[in-house]
Amino acid sequence: MTTIREIAAACNVSTATVSNILNGKAKASKETIELVRKTAQRLNYTPNYIAKNLKLKTSNTIGVIAEDMTVFNSPDIIDGITEYCEEHKYQILLTNLRLFQKFGDFYYTKNNLGQLINYEINELRSRQARAIIYVAPHVRDIKTVSSGLNLPIVMAYCTSPDPGVPSVLADDEDGFYRITKSVLKKGFRHPGLIAGKPGSYHTAERLKGFRRALLEFHFPFSEKFVYYGEWNRRTGCEGAAALMGKSVDSILCMSDIIAGGVYDWCHDQNITPGKDIPVTGFDNRELSAYLYPPLTTVNLPLKQIGRKSCEVADHMIADGENHRLEKQYLKIKCKVVNRTSL
């Protein structure tokens, strides 16, 4: 790697002159400035930003900690963060903890998870990150993250129990309210609901939206028309069998994966989704467009969550100690994606 000393020797000037020119602080002649810049380009000089940041004790870097980049929502959130950083001249230091790949579905129950997170936070601090964005695959409290870290931190698709730490989330309740309303507007009066895990934040919020839409249409809510399970196709298949036995006229699913299981059951029974029984999903996963018929679902604003998280972090950096958090939870609206399953 080319050094400033080598550029100085090639140009027959001091290392201080080269350093000042490359940092835009030089008072040298136009000829010297042009010579140094062309020589740096010819020798493929690349600034050592880490060393520079350590020396100056500051940087234009935002650290991103992703629990697992292979989980479906993480890439789009990180893409939103990256887009904002490109527009506002921030660099990104990205850490992928790979928790799902290492420990499976229930990685968040690991006893040493807090230690792993704290280690990565301290690593980013040592590299002079000016803020950290923490990205999770599903909404839950990350107890080890707090405002006592003395640098801005924003939670993307997750929360902190500390009221001083902002979170950017999808508005699950409003999203499920919208899609339930779409079903009811079509004239269906006895919708069945296949839900995820009973203790899940997403289950609770989407159930609120379902109930709100029923109330608006003056339809009673009954738990007997709700089937709880896992976030998988098997739950969709078993839920469809259970609910169809109770004479529901439509099936709303809390995820596209669950809806895929409903399709499996329908095909086994020679029932056509969308024609014989309306089916809806949630998340707008890639598979939803390739199911037959294509699945009506709700789009999660993942890229917008990433952008908003970075915008909040940017404002916290600019405000410094004067930053005052107006809202702990910033919720971004979801949109219904209309296809032929409804």
UniProtKB/TrEMBL annotation:
<dbReference type="Pfam" id="PF00356">
    <property type="entry name" value="LacI"/>
</dbReference>
<keyword id="KW-0805">Transcription regulation</keyword>
<dbReference type="Pfam" id="PF13377">
    <property type="entry name" value="Peripla_BP_3"/>
</dbReference>
<protein>
    <submittedName>
        <fullName>LacI family DNA-binding transcriptional regulator</fullName>
    </submittedName>
</protein>
<dbReference type="InterPro" id="IPR000843">
    <property type="entry name" value="HTH_LacI"/>
</dbReference>
<dbReference type="GO" id="GO:0003677">
    <property type="term" value="F:DNA binding"/>
</dbReference>
<feature type="domain" description="HTH cro/C1-type">
    <location>
        <begin position="3"/>
        <end position="50"/>
    </location>
</feature>
<dbReference type="InterPro" id="IPR028082">
    <property type="entry name" value="Peripla_BP_I"/>
</dbReference>
<keyword id="KW-0238">DNA-binding</keyword>
<feature type="domain" description="HTH lacI-type">
    <location>
        <begin position="2"/>
        <end position="56"/>
    </location>
</feature>
<dbReference type="InterPro" id="IPR046335">
    <property type="entry name" value="LacI/GalR-like_sensor"/>
</dbReference>
<dbReference type="InterPro" id="IPR001387">
    <property type="entry name" value="Cro/C1-type_HTH"/>
</dbReference>
<dbReference type="InterPro" id="IPR010982">
    <property type="entry name" value="Lambda_DNA-bd_dom_sf"/>
</dbReference>
<keyword id="KW-0804">Transcription</keyword>
